[in-house]
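Worked example 4.2. Below are the chains of a multi-component assembly; read each line carefully before continuing.
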Amino acid sequence: MGVAMMDKKFVSNIVENDEYIFNIEDFNLWYGSNQAIYGVNLTIPKNKITAVIGPSGCGKSTLLKTLNRMNDMIPGVKTSGQILYQDQDIFRKKQMVEELRTQVGMVFQKPNPFPKSIYENIAYGPRIHGIKKKKILDEIVEKSLRGAAIWDEVKDRLNQNAYSLSGGQQQRVCIARCLAIEPNVLLMDEPTSALDPISTLKIEELIKDLKDKYTIIIVTHNMQQAARISDKTAFMLNGELVEFTDTDTLFSNPKDKRTEDYITGRFG
Amino acid sequence: MAARGQFQVELDKIKILIIELAHGAEKSLSQAVEALYNSDLELAKEVIAYDKLLDKKDLEINETAILLIAKQQPVASDLRRLIVAIRISSDLERMADNAKNIAKSTIHLGKDHGIKIHSELKDMRDIALKMIDLSIKAYENEDITLARKLAELDDLVDGMYSKILTELLEETATDPQKIQHIMQMAFSGRYIERFGDHATNIGENIMYLVKGESFNLN
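Applying the procedure described above to all two chains together yields the following structure tokens:
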């Protein structure tokens, strides 16, 4: 109890000057009888890029997926503690999961466009939300593709199948698809691990541009990527949050020896 | 540890090179002051020639460290270890340069200059040698307690240098025709004093390496 209280104080001190969007309090998660997350306390600042790093199986993807309740679909998942999104408990009975996922979008490791035209990939979400007018949809498609820095590359072939694009382009279309429904938060689970270095850098530039409008939480195995693009970094190990601080501090002078050992490649 | 075994081997290699360079700078100062006292021009020439080898070693350390940064993309203490290696190597190279400059002064003074060589210069040298020894032990063991001691010794060397300088100034007043020679003596004192400053810089670098923050020991 004492340690949990101290952790909470430690974490909230870090973001005292920032507005936060998620407040995770003493959060635990089990897959059946296996506990995957232990007592995590973490506040995610708004309009910043927060990176979550840690070795495979440390619980970072699980934590990310929990933020828009993607884990609901996995049988046997049990949680305790609280996750507040804009001060509202995301597990409360009244929470509409679809509404949460509209506001908290997700970009996956492998680009997963729909097997449809580029245009339809973007227009699909807004259409489901009831937008029918072609003119408005056109505007959304252009704005979203521009927002994902891919408009100039695809504007002349919007009716082509999205699969005809390169991996990096497909990933940016997927980001545009997220932007089309105007979320507040973008969750990114290893968004560049399937991409070549140039496409990776393009996505990284895009992520940095997006932070003015969106809060971005990115899980990455690429530590240099976390160091390059994020404002804050959380290091997780064996389901616990070991350290959460400014990215500059974490990569230059981490406080916890386990963080130091991980980022310097001593284990993991 | 096995995950970065090769990297560790390379880091250890740089450490060995730095210790070798430190011993080189130590030897240079010791011989340079010896040559000054004995007006041993041959030994002074040896010190000057030896400096080229030390310059090469400094370059080797720099190149190895830069290559490691490029290839291994180190972070945190590993990155500091390499940055500090580059800085310490540069300090050691400058220390050896100071020794070389004393050797040059010796040659400038020539064989029969008839100038009294202050015994304090030898005392300064002894403390400067103690400082380089301490700084390199501190580096080898990443020991900040040893690093801190350098500040006290540096004050001692600075004080001795001031005293020598005052005395030499008086001599210029009483013996103005020897001003050229007296200046060489003053330069030599200054070179030893700078040698001590660089040793103190090494101490500061070790504190940065261990603590991750900058310190001023001067």
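Take a moment to check your reading of the output against the notes. Residues 2-263 of chain A form a domain with the Rossmann fold fold (CATH 3.40.50.300). The first strand of chain A starts at residue 20 and ends at 31.
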